[in-house]
Structures are given as C-alpha cells and as structure tokens.
Amino acid sequence: MDLELTRVDYSVTGITLPCTMELLPSSGPRLSQKVVIGDQEGVLQSFSMKKGEQQMVFKTLPGPAISRVCLGGATGTVKDKIFISKKGEVHGYTKKGKLFLGFDTCLAESIKSMYVEYLKQAVYWHVNASTLLLCGNTVYNQFRDCEDTGSFLSADTINDVIALPGEKTRSLVAVLACADGVLRVLDGVELEAQARAGAPPQGRPSTGPARSTASPVRHEVRVPRAPTALHLAANDGGAAGQNVLFGTEDGRVGLVTVTRNTPPAWRWLVDAERPGAAVSSLHCHDLSGDGDLDLIVGRDDGSVEVFATAALEPGADASQDHDVYRRFTYSCPESVSSVRGGVLGTQGYDEVVVSTYTGLVFGLTTESVDGVASMDSQSVSLSQDARRRLQLLRAELSGLEEKLAVERDRYLAAAEDSDTALSIVPHLNINHKLSLIREEAAYHLSLEAATPIDNVLVQSDVPVDILDVERNSAVVSFSDCEPESDNKVLVTFRCQMNTTRLDVRLRTVEGRAGHLRVYVTPLVAPKCAALRVLYLPPLSLHARAHHQGHGPGPDQDADENQDAADPRPYSLLSLRGPFSLAEVHAWLTACLPDLSDKPPAEPATLCFQNACMSTMLFCSYRKGEADFRSDNVSTISILKDVLSKMATSRSIHVDISCVVHPESGPHALRLMFPVLREQAALHRDLSLLDALRDLDKDALAPKFLAILESEAAIRERVKRHPTYLDRLCGMLTDLFIDHFKFRGVNVKGRVPQLLDTVYKEPLDTLLEALLRLFQEPAALSDSRV
Amino acid sequence: MAVPVFTLQLNSKILPGRVTIGKYDGSHSCLTAATTADKERLSPVLIHSPHRRLGPTSQITGATTWSQVNKEISLLSVNRNVSALAAGRLHPELEQDILVVGTQSSVLAYNVESNKDLFYKEVADGANVIVVGNLSGYENPLALVGGNCSIQGFDYKGNDPYWTVSGDNVRSLALLDYDLDGENELIVGSDDFDLRVFKEDVMVGETSETEVATILAPLRGSKMAYALANGTVGVYNKLHRVWRVKSKNRAVAVLSYDIDGDGVEELVTGWSNGKIDARNSRTGEVVFKDNFNCSIAGLADGDYRLEGRSQLICCSVDGEVRGYDSSRLGTLIEGNVHQEAVRDLLQKKQALLMELKNYESNTRSSGFTGGQNLNAGIIPAKTSLQTTVSINMGTKSKGPHVELCLTTNNETIIRAVLVFAEGIFAGETHVVHPHDEELSSTLKVALFPPRDVPLDIHIKALVGLPRTEQFHVFELTRHLPRFAMYTLITTTAPLQQEQPQNFVSFFISERIQRVILWVNQNFLLSSELEAEASGSSLSLSFTALRDGSLLNISMHPAGRVVVATPNMTLAGDLVQSLASFLNLSNLQVTAEFPQELAHLEEWLEKVSNLQEVRIQLGADLAHRAGLVRNLIVRAEDARLLPDLKSMRDWHSQLKEVNDDLINSYNIRCSNHNELLDILKQINLLIQKAARLRVGQSKADVVNLSRTALQSNNLHSLIKIVRTGEA
C-alpha cells in the first residue's frame, strides 16, 4: 500500500446504476476533466470542478432510468461522444450536451448493458461506422449506424458486454459476460452474415436450420464464477487489443486474452478478500504518474481498490503470471457503481473518481488535503475555498428546506382536504441482493436505500440462522415468534445514524424452501416501508458450476468423455411424463437458485455443485423426460420430494424412478469429511483450552502446547463460524437418513449414535467409524428390531 | 484517526475492566492491571512503573516481584481471581495512593511504595466492584466495596463504618457530588437494573434502567456517565438522562477525559470490539475515535510522560497500551472537519431532494386517483390508527397479559407491528407479523412486562392495502403505567375474604381523593375511578396477572392505609410509588409477612450450620493434606528402593486420598455457594423491609438490621422487619 489517497466529496445526483459515470477525455495531460453521469431518474449531467465548486456543463430532463453511459468517437478522434441507454432507446450527446442521436431500437427487452465501438473502413465499407452493442436480459443485438445487423440469444443472463477494439483486431469481436459463468466471444461479422442470409436470429450452434453456417460463438470461456463487469485491459485491450479484464460476482478480477483461433487463456489477477461483493466497475489509470497503469476496482460492497500489475503493460500475456500488489484500499458505506481514473478536482493531481448507488460523486485524490500543515499560505487559501463551498452548500440546503416546507404543508392539507383523497407512498428505491457465498455456504443479503435506513425487519417462514456481519453497526434484536403464526424468524435491525446500507448473513438448511420477507423503512417523510420478498429454494446451497475441470473452452464432447471418466458414484433420478420443457424448467427454477426464467433450448443440461459438501448435481431435461444425477443422496431425495409435489399440484402424472448408487452415501461422507474433521478437531481443541490453561506448561506434551499457542486462532475461527459443526452434523444426519431411506431402512433411532461418534471418536479413526455406520444396513435394522 | 502520543506493550493478557492507575509514590503514575493466570500465580496484579527510581530503595522483596525481563513491570501475587481493582488516597495521612484489590471473598488494601498490606479483610459477599474516595458524612476516605446485595465501606484501618444493602448484586459504583453540596454521594448500579443514589446511608434517588448498569463514571458537576450490559452508553445529569447511544458491542470501560482540549471533559468509551471513542458529554457527538486489534481492557487518566498534564491511557486485553492527549488531536480534527462537513451537507441535500420528490410525486399522482399501480402502497389520506391498551385475562395457551390493540379506521390492513421497548422483551423489539390469510385492520399485541416499572412503548405499524409492496409506517408512543400487570376486580358483591395474613399498614395525612388519583395514574383501569362521598373508605382489590395472587389496597377516612399482598417486593414498590406521589419525606409502617419471616429464622439457622460445616471441612482438608504429604514421601521412598509393589500400593492409597480431597473440595464449594446464596437472601430481605419505609425510617431499618445480624439476634431482626424499630 504505497499510495495515499484522500477523499474529497464533489456532488450528489440521483440513484445510479453500475457503469453510468464516465470522465470526458481532457484536452491535455493532467488537465481537469469533466464528469458525465446518468441517474435512475433519467437525468444525464456533466460537470467539472473549479476551486471546489461544481460547474454544471449541461443537464438533461428526467426520463426513464439510464442504464449505461458509454463514450465513443470515430477512430483517430477523441472519444468524447456520450451515449446513454434508457429503456429501449439509445441517445447520443456531444460533450456540450447537444443531442445528436435519438435511436429507438424497438427491442422487446429494455437495454441492460451497452458498448459503443467505431469501426474502420478496412472492415466495413462505411467510413467510421458506429456500432452499438446492446444487451437486454439474455439477447445480444448489434446495430451499425442504427441498423440491426444481427442478434444472439444467450443461454443465461448477460451481465455486461464489450467489443475488442476494432482498429486493432480489424474485426468485430464481442465478449458477453454471462451469469452462468461463461464469457461468450461472438464473431460479429459472422452474425451479420447470418442476419443478411436471413437465418433466424438464433445463435445457438445446435439449433435452427442455419447449421451450415459457422456458429457465431467463437469461444466459450468458462470461469468459476459469474462475471459481472468487463473492461479492456489498459483501456485499449493491450497492443493487440485482445486483453479483457473481467470482474466476478465474488469480487475477483481476471484477465482473458481473446485470440482469433486458439481457445482464449485466462487467469486471476486479483483474489477476493471479502466474499459477497461483486465487482461493479473496472478502470485503468496511471495514478502515481510513474508511467505504469494501475488497475482500479470498484465493488458493490463499497470497496475501492487500486492495484499495480505488470499485466496491464502492452504485450502482456494472460497465460503468464504477473505480480500484482495492492496499492490502496478504501471502503465507503455505499455500494460503488462506477470508478474512473482521471483528473477532476485539482489540475495536475490524478485521482479516482467514484460514484455510488445513492448518487454521491467523490474523488480519492493524490493531492494531500489534510490540514496538518495549516500554517502555510496554500492551505489557508484552500480553507477559504472550502469555507465558501460550505456556505454555498448551506445556502442551497436552506433553499431546499423552504421549498420542502411548502410541499409538506400542501401534502398535509391534501390529506385533510377530502374523504376521497389518497395518500400514496413514494416509490422507494431499494437495492437488494441475495447471493450465496460458496466458501461459507451462507447467503449474503445486502440492502441499500437512497436515504439513511431507520430499521429493517426480516421475517422468514423457514428456519434460517441470521448471523451478524462485523461491519454492521445496527442493533440486532431477535423477536419471539408465536407458535401459531408461520414465522420462524423475526429479526429487526435498528440502524445507526447515516446508514444507507445493511448487510446480513443467513444460513439456510437444504430441503426447507420458503420466503424471506424484508421490510425496509428508510428515514424519509412521509414514513413508509418497502417490502422485498426473496425466495429460498429447497436446494439453496447449490451453485452453478461447470463440468469438472475448467480447461480453456472444453466443448460438449470433451465433457461427455470426462463424465465417463468421472469416478463419482452417481445416483440417478428420472422423471417421465407428459410435461413440457417449460414446465420442467419452471419446477427446477423453484428448486435451485440462480436459474433464469427462460427455459433454455432442449435438451438442456445444467450443472450444480453443493457449496458445503462439494457434491455435484447434473440435470438434463427435455420435453417429457428429465434425468438428474448426483453423488449426494440427500440432493436426490430432496429433488424427488419437491418434483413429485410439484407434478402432483399440476396434476401431471409423472413416473419417477430412482437408482441409488450404494457407494454414494459413503462417497458424500468422504467429500465432506475434511471439513467435518477440521471442525471436529476445532471443537475438541476448544473444549481442551480452558483445562490446558490451568496446567503447568512445562509438563504438557508438545501437542497440547501447540493448542495453547494457537488459542487466539482457534477462538477466532470459532467466532467466525459459530455452530458450524452443528450444521455439518445436521447435514451428516440428513445424508445418513437418506442413504438408508432409499434402501427402505429407517435409521432415525441410530442418529444419536452417529452424532456421538462425531463428537467422541478419535479423529484418526473417525472416518472409518462413520463409514462403518454407513455400511451396516442389515446390522442396523436388526439392532432396531 | 488519532495518533497516539505513546504506545507500549505490557506483554501480558489483561482482564477486562480491571485496570486502574495510581500514584503509589505520591507523584508518578503507575498503570495497574489484573492479568490472566499464568502457571505460578492466579491472576497476578501487574504494576507498570515507567518512572521507577532506580536505586537501593527499590530493591523490594515481599509480595511484589520485579520482572526480570522488563524493569518497569512488577507483579503482585494475590492467589485468587481478582474481581475488582482500585487505587486512591485511602490513608488520610499518607500522600500516596493505596491499591485496593478485591476478590470473590476478600479485600486487600496494599501500600505499593512501602510494599506492605494496609489491611486484609474477608468479605462474605465478595467484591464485584471497588471505588476509593471520600463519602459525605465520613471523615476518612473509604474503599467502597460492592458485593452481592451489599455495599461495605472500609477505612484505612480496615474498619467498615459504612454498610448498606442494595436490591440485587452490585455491578457498578461511582462517587459523585450528586446534589452539588461539595460532598460526594454514592451511586450504585445493581443486577435488578436499578440505579440508586445514597447520601450517607439514606437513599435520595432511584431510577430504573433497561439493563444492568455495568459501569458508572462521574463527569463534571452532577453529571454521570453510565454503560449498560446491552451496549448502551449515556450520560445522566442527576437522574435525568441527557443522551444515550446504543451499539451492538459492549462497553468495557468508561472514563471522563478532555480529549479535544476545550476544557470540557468528553466521555471516553472503550468497547469490547477494540474501538475507543470520545463523545461530547452534552450531545453525545463523537469527537475522537481509534481502533485496537482486540477488546479494550481498561481506560485510565494519568501523567505518563511527566509533562505536567495527564494523558488518556488505553489498555487492550492483549496488553497493548496507547496514550492520547489533545496536543496532536487538534490539528487532525481540523483537517477532516471540512470534508466531513461537505459529506454531511451532501447527504442532507440528498435526503431533502428525495423528500421533495416524494411530495411532488404524491401530489402528481393524487391528480388521477385510482387506476394506478396497486403495488405502490396507496391508502386513503384519512387513514388513522387507533390504539387501546387493556388487560386480557388470556387463554389456556397464553397467560393473562396486557393487550395492545391496533385498529385502522377503514379497509386498510396492518401488515406488521414492531414494538420497541426496552426491558420487557428478550431483545429490544417485539414483532407481530400475522399470516397472510389473517391480515385484517385489527391487530393485537400481547405484552408481558416482567417488572413493575413505568414503560414507554414505541409502536411502528406497517399499514397498507393487501398485497402491496409498500406500506405506510405509523409511528406512535404509548405509556404503560407502572402497575399495569394488576387488574381491578369489579364484582359488585364484596369479596368475602379472611383477614389478610401479609400486609403493610401505615398512616398518611392525605385525602382519599389523592390516593385515588395515584391509583388512576399507576394502574391500568378500564375506566377512571371516581372518588366517592367524603367520609367513606376506599377498598380496591386487584389480581396480579403474573401469578394470580391478590392485592388489596384499602384506606380508612382516618388515614390508615393497608396494602395486603403476599409479595413483599410489590408492597415495597407500592409504598415507594405512593410516597413519591404524595411527596412523603418519612414513613414508618407496620409490616406483617409471616412466611418471609419464617424463612429468616430458617436462614439464620442454616448460616450457623454451614459455618460449622465449613470449619469442619477445613480441619478435614488439613488432615488429608498431611496424609498426602506422608504418602508421597513413602511412595518416593519405595521408588528409590526400588520396591515396586509397595510403591503401587502407596500410589493407589494416594489416589484414594486424592479422590477424597476432590470430593470434599466439591462439598466445600457447594457449601460455600449455599452460604453465599443464603446471605444474599438475608440481604435481600433487609432491603425489601427497608423499601417498605421511606426516608430516615428506611435507613434505620438497614442500620438496625446490621447490628442485629452482627449480634445474631433473630428476635430483634424480626421485630425490625415488622415494625422498623429495634
């Protein structure tokens, strides 16, 4: 951490979505730049800072929410044209705020992500044709000079889109970041050719009559976690224009090199430190002025980090490892929507400009603004500037307050006016996210409001453990649940002053599905609360995964070969019956998290991994048949219960057959054993600690001395995951019962013995002892009778 | 972030809350802390003397040993778990601070400079907390020791001229000039959530908190800082709360120190998560904060740099010590003030803009009524929420309770209700979230206040139409009277009941109307009582909702009041409440509680039995210890000989004796616990008896009881409880 940056607050706008702020290029090196920012009220504004005062360049009228702001410009010119996407439209503004493009795409979906690329004559016959890449939820569209030149339906939600720089690649190559953990590299030229040939705008390789033409999907790069943000490495893709940075849902940043013919190679640059924080924005900028670009990462938990890495240098190759070190970290209490490096506040000082969800724009500047040396003349003038700025702000506030008083009176008068008058709660903008943290097998719920939150009520109709998050300052209070009500959990969080964001950790139990109701009451007048309902599926701890091995772009055949070689003992569950693909997909959506609503093309194959036990679940289904394979009998058991219930409720007759691999129980046990053993050891150490402390150290065996020495670490681990062993035991019990259930043996009576083994058996023989329990069905049933 | 002016490492684990500072040589401050047990000693007390004079005088032998590694640290063996630590001028003639160390069974006053004990006293009630200082009415400084239900004050000779009882185990003490008369009063926080103010031995003030007050610290004037077990920290001026804040962490130490150098002390708090912060004592605004890696163990205020002014010294549980003062803080605060102000203003602007937008959208959309998105949370503007508080006698599954009934005046539904009130729920809130099918415009909340205290309950009701995603929040506050859990029996036929066995009776020279007014204010009645024609007597019967017992309050026109209840605590509460309502400065009562008094006899007998057993066990222990010594020698002899067979015999005998020892130790333990329990019960009874009286009579009960207890005079004690006189 060699960089020292100081926070300077600039302005406030409406609520912003990710990637809705840009810095316009400056006219010279280290000269002040202008900010362009679009908010959810549809206002696009551009401003610069002069002596600490905000100087507005232009501001548009409100409209639909702005989902993206991109800069573009013809090759060879300055990229200072501003493109914004809102709903189904794309608007273009000059840097002065003049509208030069108003384009209604007529797309069915509203635009979620956008990228603008100008292409040169060498590729197309147009001179400097602007190409818009627009993505809705799952559909990718490309427009050249506002003319539809092809589209592609992705298998899962598209989080972000980017094009490789055309001037370098001499082609149109689009990269889609998809929620199923795949970076899809599309050949835009191919798409265009297909579109012109009249092929249906279906890009799937296996479907459609357009099999003769090559697939527009050039590569599918599988990364372990869903990518959420894309950015060209070094802002221009490197020397060959092939390097793309991607940020993932768990906060990591990777670098992928998209070459034309060989499968793209990728690797991690930055590892996650705080799970549950997705990357929302990436940028590269030389902050320290040493000629090397720094990587700036903004995440939705409010962290901004700056890294120095050799991977951004021209000619860097993704296949090589580069040193990465953290130069700076900052954590703000709101989620970061965009980060950009540049010069804004003071000429000559580089800074990171950050915009947050609530619309705050602030800088982390290299200029030193702390007043330690308050005697020299420069900082005196600075404080005069500051004083004037404060006065201006105060004047603005008092103006607003007056206006507000008038409105408030009018509101109250309206309320008393007539009997038919209605009081309408303003629409509360609550940014919520429920994501599974695989490392901890727990859910992370983050709630964010535009104004400070007063309190949050969380109600659940399934048993969940609510864990406190260290960085929360809210006072947590668990309320008693009356048995006759359906409530299993009622928790209130009373937030401290100026808290706009609340994080909650939840632990779910597989097999119990239900709803989580979250009532958020912000501190606004008139006081109101917003309800958000979140569904917890029965297989809540399963997360989307790729087939074994994340080799660069393994294709379908390789997968099947791998499956054949996969030594896991899979149990099978098959459904046959008169159901449609959409129906079975809907059932699965109710069973598993992270599935998009749209049924994929048949035959669909999905792969999930259990975050706690790392067992796999493969689902392949089509009209009339569905097959599930898992090496965890509990998973199969839950699926069987839920699916048969769903089919019955739709009164569809379904044949369910189940083949349980005899080894799958012990296999799952072996998979979970390392964690179980670790936790069991921790439990034993913990219970020894107090006793050991009373003993004479000299007489202790080295083994016990080691325990004493690591006391702090042990307590820390227990504190971080309290009752983890109990939870594992719960899973073990489920597994144990399910393992024998499929053989028609009820072993509930033997559960105490199983648990006793976990707590008492010596660690070295624990696995054997447990396996023995799993292998004696006959003896068990005898002993029960 | 603040920059400390010094940091140092004590290299020992410090017990939280047991840190003090003293000038043991009269001029140099020494940080003193209780440390966790190491292999030789049980929690030795560590004394850190950075300015220790080197020379022959400091070569001390005795109870303290100077550390070989660090020449500034000395350790004092206590051989018991230190439960409280304090330093102060206890000796009126010496210009030096005396260290007072409390354990669960003893108090030791120790002169560090001359390395000798001032006194050592066994205290049966234990020492949970100690303060040293002057108390009004006493000439010499006292070491006040708070134990289980009692407070003892020791002077430098080891005499205890001060003794009083409190409602429960004492958790915190503070000496403070409460009434600004130039002399200190004693403030006591105890396990029954109460704060009591004693002037000499008369209680002059009492208030109830929402949790146990774990720390009390005097601020300037009559102001006092307090910290509760649930993470609340705040400031009282006399018994009026100035402000309070609540955190999810627990406060470990509270101290008053002027950190920003403005001449007014700030309230410095050390938290269990390693944070320290200083708050303005008037507003609670944070002026300074810093972070340690682990929990704070204690805060102290002393001159550690010999620069003529004191520093704020913070000590964490892993032995890290940091000192702060105002010198470096000033400039740092200046630098950040501007940015903070800008951020604050921007945030305010954001909130204002948002509110403005809300009103605008409201007026806009009320233009075209109806037909809008139904999810938006629309309710008629005239919707109002009515609340009634009544007593519900309950059903089989749900006992009798106080019922809060919320009703809207139209078809809107109440989605959920959040009731914020401290001290009556497990957490601070109670939520009622009915099932989707049971949503209606009426919602009932059952409350079970566990104690008889007046309560303010804050209600937030989420009101909307069915199936909306946004709700209006109605906020209101209701007051629950102190004796809400007692319901008036209104049968017209007079209850034929036998003469009550348990009652208190007293005379007041007040009109019946005034008493009726008191009843109206303090009980939850369906309709207010009306005073009948003068000259008639008043008789009211209540049923306690908690246990169904009967409470009878009657008053003769002549002024004789009889409060009949088997619950002595309740009788005390009623007397205290009535007395404060009528502004009585002194009240003597006659109390009849035969069952309680029967207990007393039993307890006193048990105490003497237990003490006998204890002596016996002690002798037994000595005998067995001798045996052990003997057996070990023999076993060793046999080993050296080498006679393995007899060695095994000796060892098996040794094992038997050892088992016996463990057994008798366990007996001793349970014996001791039983003794403690009974002593606590006796203290409690005296306290309850005292609470039946007001003013001087109240103090008399405590003092007379003490004398009676010391002389083991049961009859006198019983007489004191009954009549308040010896």
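qc> Chain B touches chain A through 75 residues (CB under 8 Å).
qc> done
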